[in-house]
Amino acid sequence: MSAPPHSSRAAPDLAGVLRRTTANAVRRERLTHLERLAARPARHAPWPAWTDPRLREALRRQGVTEPWVHQVTAADAAWSGEHVVLATGTASGKSVGYWLPALTSVLAAAEEGRGRPGVLYLAPTKALAQDQLSKLQGLGLGPLRATTFDGDSGTEERDWAREHANYVLTNPDMLHHSLLPGHARWAKFLAGLRYVVIDECHHYRGVFGSHVAQIVRRLRRLCAHYGSEPTFVLASATVASPADSAERLVGAPVRPVTDDGSPRGEILLALWEPPLTSLHGEHGAPVRRTATAETADLLADLVVEGVRTLAFVRSRRGAETVALTAKDHLAAVDPELARRVAAYRGGYLPEDRREIEHKLRNGSLLGLSATNALELGIDIAGLDAVLLAGFPGTRAALWQQVGRAGREQQGALGVLVARDDPLDTYLVHHPESLLGKPVEATVFDPANPYVLGPHLCAAAAELPLTPDDFALFGPGTAEAVEALTDGRLLRRRPRGWFWTRRDRASDLADIRSTGGSPVRVVEHETGRLLGTVDAAAAHSSVHPGAVHLHQGDSYLVLELDLEESVALVRRAQPDYMTVAREVTDIRIVGTDRSQQWGAATLSFGDVEVGNQVVAFLRRRLGSGEVLGEEPLDLPERRLTTKACWWTLSEEQVRDCGVAPAALPGAAHAAEHASIGLLPLFATCDRWDIGGVSTALHEDTGRLTVFVYDGHPGGAGFAERGYADAHTWLTTTRDAIEACECADGCPSCVQSPKCGNGNSPLDKHGAIAVLDTLLGEVTT
Ligand SMILES: [Zn+2]
Ligand SMILES: [Zn+2]
User: Fold this and answer.
1) For the whole model, what pTM was predicted?
2) From the CA of 331, how far away is ligand 2's center (Å)?
3) Quick check: 681 and 725 in contact, CB under 8 A?
């Protein structure tokens, strides 16, 4: 088969393709919205006068003849010593924004032969730091001595980095475990540190974000000790209030730069909702056709049209299924076309991946399905269309994925295919939430006491803590230091608080874990470690008898050893799935903030959640029919965390039009949908949060719905919900109403993680209750 080189290829008429794809009425109904985003021209600004000419020349060689306006604004601010966050779209050249000041300072100092002004670059992953290193090396700047410092670096590389490097690329984990605890050996580097670049900073969210915020504070403290005060430059995808989250991360005011001057070709964004089928699921709810099945159909259609298409699918098995199904469809039309579709997944050797990328570039491959996880590692140009089987979790990720198509300002087509959950349902019926100003924010809570304590120990091990440090680490520090001293983790001496134990203080904080040691999932026959499950989710997902899915394969859990944190499993193909039954109670410990919405109240504060997995159900795959229930003997778990909750008064409940018997179901349905929609406002997924609803709660004496952070001490999600509660709950109400099912289904009020088997649920009651709650808001 010979393929045409892409340079000779005319751009396909994407609007025409879409028109043909939706020519019949059944198909047309699934297209809920089509948005045409006009092409946008580039806006340039002159090079800052202070730019080193060698850097300007190097960038010119790479095709940057004149920088874009946002690059210059950010660079000028950083050059003048202002902390800055650059939050612009995919492929908007954010690195040029921080290279200008960072590399100019490195080059100038090398010239003058003075000291070693350093740049520290932080990426959330090793792969990203490696990628950034090769880009830096591609600039060919002689005096630049850049190196990565990560778990793979050998002793020699580490010594070289400490002694000679002026640009060190690393990740928060290395900073936490190695660089900061060993700061004495990095003294020269830290003394000269001019810039700290925090790339892809929207990754630092939830509990992980709290940890990284504390690591940054430890870094700033050590820099001050060695006499430097670096300027922070952060880069982020476009999210709501980037300055707020950047400021929380750095612990100092940060200037936002959001006016994107990069050009863009025309984008067609199609929103697509699979139809309800005649099948029935849990409690007789209608079953929607899956997003993967719809995506496979669309992939086949686009390949027939000669449109180079990449489909993003959530799971590895899903990606394989989409490719196989599309091939089947195509084989019926033309076997030759079927050979031009492939799946692209993790686990491939780099040369296999390069081969696939090459084939897509030259057009011998037309369709590819990949998992979201490959987003960072993928290097594909020349695409026309991107299909998304399900919302990828954030608007930033959606635009990043759609941005894969439309090379060199040619047009691009993006299709978001909804999955059956309330968030996706809402989005395909409310395009303005994807197109308007972003509302989702990267949230975390730097003051989480469970995170603060271990980092204060690590800081004390680095340099004794003194009261002068308290302001840097935030409110609650004095209290935390006292508690750590009482607990004999820290010792008070005349010069401050010391870490005097022999073990490593930094080991107290496991920055990627979310509380408790994760449970290892081990295959019984082979002893092979399949993966881990967060401690918080272990009871409900790997209890004895549970069906556990791992990368598309199913396993049966034989034993859960809580002391050793191990679940033993064996491969199995049962024709059922399992659902845990839980008993949850919640107690209000303290209210931080509260407001009246007429007779209703909205609050945010501390709660204690008690949760016990008491049994599990076996449900037949497909139909959801209950095959049996088995009791479990697992201990109760208690979680102290943050929650947002709302209540209705007795009169409101009486007048809302919901019969007393239907109230528990109404509150429960409202709770589920609101958990499903919170990720639109705070980048989290529905598994990071939990909820409790009751027609009468003993602490409030009223109908109450709680949504809480699933991590000890809170993660900022419930706080964000409180801050934007009116929009969040209005959105929740609209999402429920948008679903065309009669009495509730997974697209609106049913939840896959419900510990009560999705019962009782009252869809119409939920709308009535939310209308009452929102009806008296005077804001
Ligand atoms: Zn529904
Ligand atoms: Zn539930």
Assistant:
1) 0.86
2) 44
3) no
